[in-house]
Amino acid sequence: MDPVRLHYDISGSDFTTAGEASGKIKKTLKSLGFSPAVVRNVTIAVYEAEINMVIHAGGGAIDADIFPDRIEVVLKDEGPGIQDIDLAMQEGWSTAPENVRQLGFGAGMGLPNIKKYSDDLQIESEVGRGTTIRITVQNK
Amino acid sequence: MTIQEIMQTLDAEVITGADFLDREIRTACGSDLMSDVLAFVKEQAMLLTGLVNPQVIRTAEMMDMTCILFVRGKRPTLDMIDLANENDIVLLGTPYEMFTACGRLYSKGMRGRSGK
Fold this sequence. Notes:
The complex is a heterodimer.
Chain A: E1 4-11, H1 20-31, H2 36-57, E2 59-66, E3 70-77, H3 85-88, H4 98-101, H5 110-117, E4 120-126, E5 130-138
Chain B: H1 3-9, E1 13-16, E2 27-30, H2 34-38, E3 45-49, H3 54-62, E4 67-70, H4 78-86, E5 90-93, H5 98-107
Parallel strand pairs in B: 2-3, 3-4, 4-5
Antiparallel strand pairs in B: 1-5
Helix pairs in contact in B: 3-4
């Protein structure tokens, strides 16, 4: 069966619209009848990743493939890349600038939260080239 | 507690969502750090915050929170109110600061995510 596919281009300049794609993915999952817990796990993980994309990478693209048994979301950017992924996964470690912290993010919780709410998280990153994050949530 | 009771406890006014004041709220979370709010899921929760930007509403949307209370007399912007309306989220405002607002709700039986 072909998945339901969603694609969003994310602007890197406008923090106020960050989260719009995550909100749309949430509404689609809800309308497809996924349980509130599955919908929440996907949208929280994607929302944190979308915020990261806006804060750190100047935007990018989000592709979601919705299968009956799982949801796969790929977030791809051409930003500065992550120098040390192990370090970035630690709670509290952040490179976000002060203006982002004033907006309620950038406390070093983004990647740990993404991992927490997903069943599988793959991060490929090359410094100077960009980052691709693959989030999978099983429909349990 | 119902949102109506929360409003009485905090001398709060409703900014939007006046149709939903009989909603039952069992747990609350007070934070200006949205990633901390996103770290813990709890059903039927409300958010108390002094932060004013659209990501506050987005965070509540992602967490299925049905009510946001702005402390210290802060007021959301028009685009935040629109976003709250789209998602049936009630927005309240109280003159009390965060500590006092949380304390007053706690004394009336509201609990945090731990339930303690």
